Amino acid sequence: MLPATGYAMRDANRPYADERAWNGVEIDFQMASDPLRIEPYLTGLSFDYVSLHTLDLSIASPHAPARSYLDALVMVAEENGAVAISDHLGFTHGTPGGANVGHVMAPPCTEAALDATCRNIEIIQRHFGDRKFYVENLAHFFLMHGTMAEATFIRRMLERTGCGLLLDVTNAYANERNFGHNAEAFIREVVPAADRLQMHLAGGFLDARTAWYVDSHSEPVPAEVWRLYRLALELGRGKVDAAFIERDWNAPTEGGWRAEVRQVRRIARETERMELVEVAS
Ligand SMILES: [Fe+2]
């Protein structure tokens, strides 16, 4: 089954939603729930697959997400026809309504954090019902001391909860550049543990002063991320629901927007064809 392919919807790429290779979309909860909006965010557009992306479920917090936030997500998903909802493996706050750190931070990879995360995911999944919930791996700023590797934490989280994995291929690549974590080994461990997958692809840049790879969503997807994407498709055959490019800055030309999503689809198609050849032989 060919995954849906497309972009995280932004004002800059909305004019190109007619692109044939763009048949799935990820919409941002904060944009789609803008209080000044009078129509659903996707009014006038049609996609085969819609997923709602958010960043404040804080699934690694010791406290469960607020019911009001869960309700709002379901309402926005409903009005835009989203069949899936995703958030990150991390925390933005300790208690519902408490101080927000302003960015999703990764938890320490400990048994206690794993227990809290799995409990929260189970609460979220019960609330979302038939809408599949996907959890995304982060690009790290720093690492907290833990008792297991991040890949182990994610694998065990997937096995315990049955949630989907939103594999951000570029985040895995950034962690390899910045922390020496092997992105391919990470993908080889987590993908088989997921029952369903989505993927994110993006491009950042190397900050020459700090020698830090910045996951800026401002550049074309780099060659190594394309290679890892293909690997993840092969490992995740039959269970990849969607692949989305995230581009937030430095918008390309119309040709650039169209070419990059076509590449997402072309690689997915090539991987599927390879599967058919293998089945036939
Ligand atoms: Fe992402």
What does this structure look like?
By secondary structure, the protein is an alpha/beta fold. It has one domain (4-280): TIM Barrel (Alpha-Beta Barrel). 38% of the residues lie in helices and 20% in strands. It is built from eight helices and twelve strands. The chain has helices at residues 29-32, 67-80, 111-128, 150-161, 169-179, 183-190, 223-235, 254-280; strands at residues 4-7, 24-28, 49-53, 84-88, 91-93, 100-105, 132-136, 164-168, 197-201, 205-207, 212-214, 240-245. An eight-stranded parallel beta sheet has the order 1-12-9-8-7-4-3-2. Strands 5-6 form a two-stranded antiparallel sheet. The longest helix has 27 residues, at 254-280. The relative contact order is 0.14. Fe (ii) ion binds at residues 136, 168, 200, 246. Fe (ii) ion (FE2) binds next to loops.
Break the fold down into its secondary structure elements and pairings.
Elements: E1 4-7, E2 24-28, H1 29-32, E3 49-53, H2 67-80, E4 84-88, E5 91-93, E6 100-105, H3 111-128, E7 132-136, H4 150-161, E8 164-168, H5 169-179, H6 183-190, E9 197-201, E10 205-207, E11 212-214, H7 223-235, E12 240-245, H8 254-280
Parallel strand pairs: 1-12, 2-3, 3-4, 4-7, 7-8, 8-9, 9-12
Antiparallel strand pairs: 5-6, 10-11
Helix pairs in contact: 3-4, 4-6, 5-6, 6-7, 7-8
Fe (ii) ion (FE2) is lined by residues 136, 168, 200, 246.
Question: What are the defining features of this structure?
Answer:
38% helix; single chain; alpha/beta; binds fe (ii) ion; 12 strands; 281 residues; two-stranded antiparallel sheet; TIM Barrel
